[in-house]
Design brief:
With 469 residues, this protein is an alpha/beta fold. The chain is built from 20 helices and nine strands.
Amino acid sequence: MNQSHKALWTNCLHLIRQNVTEQIFKTWFEPIVFESYDEAKKTVLVQVPSPYIYEYLEQYYVRLMGWALTNSFKTSVKLTYRLVTDMENQLTQDVESDSDVDIEGPAPTTRGNKSPTVLDAVTPQSLNPQLDPRKNFDNFIEGDSNKLPRTVGISIAEHPGKSTFNPFFIFGPSGCGKTHLVNAIGVRCKKLYPQKRVLYVSARLFQVQYTDAVRQNTTNDFINFYQTIDVLIVDDIQEWASSPRTLDTFFHIFDHLFRLGKQIILASDRPPVDLAGVKDRLLTRFSCGLIAELEKPNVQLCVDILNSKCRRDGLKIPVDVIQFIAQTANGSVRDLEGVVNSLMAYSIVYNSNIDMHLAERVIKRAVKVDNHPLTVDDILEVVCRHYGVSQQNVFSKSRKRDYVQVRQVSMYLAQKYTKMPASRIGQLIGGRDHSTVLHSCSAVEQRLKVDKAFYEELGSIERSFKLKQ
């Protein structure tokens, strides 16, 4: 290195120091390292520790640096930055200044000459990633409906920003596990790369922050903050569909992070093409990485999720109850967890075992879906109300004609409308065996053939089921 050129750079820093506060100088100019001066090309090459510093210098201090360089080197000087893009692997990239730097006189006082805020800081303070550590890959159970998104998510977490899966756009219906998956990516990434700035934010919170920034006239601070993130995770972006200003601001943040190779992960309840109100320039960016659909879990995956939760929480739930919950939870992971939590609460409060009868009662109250499958409890409630008898009478051993009729009709309808075997139906209706159920069904079927009034009565009861659903 030519010492005279290094001395000229030192003098340049001295001139800059006289025109900014000490804090600004230490924040933005002390990290700059003089590399070389090419006399033939009249170009100064300096190294800066991150692309963020380069962009900030270009935005706020290029006039001041140009004036100082011209006065130190006594000639018009071109400025080139050597950006450190990967500290671990010592990767750099040379970028020429976008502006001419041969400017006479120091720059006038601007926003950039003022003391930087926390959001402005070149080495930003510790950042809370806003991740839920309970939502990780260990308890994100793999199945046919989520195999691709889960596999890609692990790859991204282990190599953020270094794959073709950027941005990673995940979409799927509510309750299918989108929030769990994006959290799991963030949690593993933060564990593998603790120095990276990982942030999970909901679209609504982002919009609230932006609105506050506009109100307080700190929009630049807001944008600068988000441009320091290494792995940005935004959930439920469909909520921006009617917020064009928020979308425009996010476009600039997205573009900045994408150009620098930062990882972007987006989650929505619909694919990009169905995001009404989003401009094409943003939709094309959402689609340039990988779009992956997260489908509702099938019954087998629901069973696996329930078994995993039981092992993790030390629960004991019978196999038939787990199968029943998996079949009736409408493929929603949230509903699965809600039902299990409710079963635990009922079991503890009433000191009862978790069995099929309890599961049916909980499902009816906890899971609200279209065409909810009927349970034995539903059928008993409607039939008993129709005939004006209590369930206690039906469960008794009484052979009274009215009770026997309600018992037989309930068993017949339970076999018709539920997927339960006769033995299970008998257990839930007074502890009878499967032969009693089969006999009852046969008796009802024979009567339907010869008794028109009974046929119409049963039809009325079945219509009540449809209204109940």
